[in-house]
Design goal:
The two termini are about 10 Å apart. A hairpin with a 3-residue loop joins strand 2 and strand 3. The chain has a five-stranded mixed sheet, sandwiched between helices. The protein is globular. It is α/β, with parallel strands linked by helices and about 120 residues long. It has three helices and five strands, in the order βββαβαβα. It has one domain: Alpha-Beta Plaits (2-Layer Sandwich), CATH 3.30.70.
C-alpha cells in the first residue's frame, strides 16, 4: 500500500516537517511554530495530509533521548495514544540521532536530510 512518510523534528525555535512519497520523492517541507496554538494541530496536520493525498500518513516524531526537553514533553502531551494507528495516520516516536547532510530537489529550506534518513529507517519498515 502506498503511503506518505512524514517526519516531525522539534528544534530550539521551530519544528521541521518533511513529507515524502517513498524514499526519494519529497512532497512537502515546512518550518512551523514549535508550539501549535491547538493541542489537535499535529493530528489535524496528519489527517489533512492523508485526506489531501488519499493515502495513509506514516509519521515519526523525533524526540530527545532523555525525553525531558520542553519540545519532547509538549508533543507527548499532544498525543494521548502513543503508537495509535487510524485509517488516516500512524505515529511513532523516534530518538534523535546525529546524521550527515544531503542535498535534495527542494532547495532553500536548509537541513532536512536527517529527517529523510529517519523516515527511510523508521517509517518505511
Amino acid at each position: 500500500m502506498e503511503s506518505i512518510w512524514l517526519g516531525l523534528c522539534p528544534g530550539p525555535r521551530t519544528i521541521r516537517i518533511l513529507a515524502m512519497r517513498g524514499p526519494t520523492e519529497t512532497v512537502l517541507k515546512a518550518h512551523l511554530s514549535l508550539r501549535p496554538s491547538s493541542p489537535r494541530a499535529v493530528i489535524a496536520l496528519l489527517e489533512a495530509l492523508a485526506l489531501w493525498e488519499g493515502v495513509q500518513v506514516r509519521a515519526a516524531l523525533v524526540v530527545d533521548d532523555g525525553s525531558t526537553s520542553s519540545s519532547t514533553t509538549l508533543y507527548r502531551d499532544t498525543f494521548s495514544m502513543f503508537g495509535e494507528q487510524t485509517p488516516l495516520y500512524s505515529l511513532e516516536w523516534v530518538p534523535r540521532r546525529a546524521v550527515r547532510r544531503r542535498r535534495d530537489e527542494l532547495a532553500g529550506m536548509h537541513e532536512f536530510a536527517d529527517l529523510e534518513r529517519m523516515l527511510a529507517r523508521t517509517v518505511a519498515r
